[in-house]
Amino acid sequence: MSDNVNLLKEGFKKKRQFIFLSVFFLSLFGLLMVYSASGVYAFRLYNDALYFFKRQLLFFCGSLVVFFITLLINVDILRKHNKKIFIFNLLLLVLVLVVGRRVGGAKRWLEIGSFSFQPSEFLKLSFLLYACGYFFRKGKRMRDFKEGVLPFLCVACLVFLLVVLEPDFGTVIFWLIWILFMFFLVRVKTKHIMFIMIFGLVASLVLVKADPYRFRRLLVFLNPWEDPQGSGFQIVQSQIAFGEGGLFGVGLGEGKQKLFFLPAAHTDFIFSMIAEEFGLIGSLSVLLLYFFIFIVMLRISCMIGDEFFRYFCIGLSVMFGLEIVINVGVSCGFFPTKGIALPFVSYGGTNLLVHYLLLGVFFNVSRVYEDYPSMR
Question: Where exactly are the structural domains of the chain?
Answer without folding.
Answer: 2-375
